Amino acid sequence: MEQLFSNLPLLISDSGNSKTLYHIIVIIFAAFAAFIPRYFPILFFSTRKIPEWFNEWMKYVPVSLFTALIVKGIFVTTAGYHFVPFGHVEQILAALVVMVVAYFTRSMAISVVGGLVAVWLLSMVI
């Protein structure tokens, strides 16, 4: 086993143009990194009764995360993280369209598709 780990840099190094083993190892580590944060909460919460207030509170987490991502994308520049109130007018108008669509449909999927269509159409016009 020790010999395997001592030769590991040689195994994953570039032999010609093929880094297949390197890519396989990266994929395996990425699979573990994606699996572990999902598995442990399921393991922990599957044997416990979750309070009703917690379930009510958790209903708002996806919407709040979605809103935070959208607001940052519309109003904050990537070159220095400055607040720009009217930097992306078509995206602001599309966000208003999304709010209306979300209010009436209560569907995040329809809201996202509506927002994408609105940004596309508005960016062609503005």
Brief write-up:
The protein has 126 residues and is mainly alpha-helical. It has 7 helices and no strands.
Gross geometry: extended
Distance between the termini: 63 Å
Mean pLDDT: 83
Q: Proportion of β residues?
A: under 5%
Order of helices and strands: HHHHHHH
Question: What summary fits the major beta sheet?
Answer: none
Structural class: mainly alpha
Poorly predicted runs: none
In angstroms, what is the radius of gyration? 23 Å
Return the domain count: 2
Fraction in helix = over 70%
Contiguous helical run count: 7
Keywords: Membrane, Transmembrane, Transmembrane helix
Transmembrane segments: 20-40, 60-81, 93-122
Protein name: AzlD domain-containing protein
Pfam families: AzlD
